[in-house]
Amino acid sequence: MNDEMIEILNPTGVRATKQIRLAVRKHKSLNDARIGLLDNNKPNADKFLDHVGALLKKRYDSVELVVKRKMTRIEADCLTELAERCDVVVNAFAD
């Protein structure tokens, strides 16, 4: 019989929580806001943003949605346009 010991490690680590304050909001409401929806060109990002857009329109019927899709995964040439044209931008990361 072999008396060798095997050490088993748990790779999940210790769970830690921390309470933080949210960033200061620029806008009190999204009514009449222009909201950019930036699709990062990954699978299902468009479906996610369609759902987010529908929820925003349902809650704030006066929002204008500006939908853009990055054609490369590295750089978005539409970022300047979204920053200048929109009050808020939602960026989707999906797979």
Your description of this structure?
The protein is an alpha/beta fold and about 100 residues long. It has a domain at about 35-80. About 25% of the residues lie in helices and about 20% in strands. It contains two helices and three strands. It has helices at about 45-60, 80-85, and strands at about 35-40, 65-70, 90. The chain has a three-stranded parallel β-sheet, sandwiched between helices. The chain is elongated and about 75 Å long. The mean pLDDT is about 85.
Main sheet? 3 strands, parallel
What is the averaged pLDDT score?
A: 86
| Poorly predicted spans | none
Amino- and carboxy-terminal Cα gap: 50 Å
Strand content: 15-25%
User: What is the CA-atom radius of gyration, in angstroms?
Assistant: 21 Å
Strand order of the largest sheet: 2-1-3
Would you tell me the structural class of the helices and strands?
Answer: alpha/beta
Tally of contiguous helical segments: 2
The secondary-structure element order is EHEHE
Counted beta strands: 3
General shape: elongated
Helicity, in percent?
Answer: 10-25%
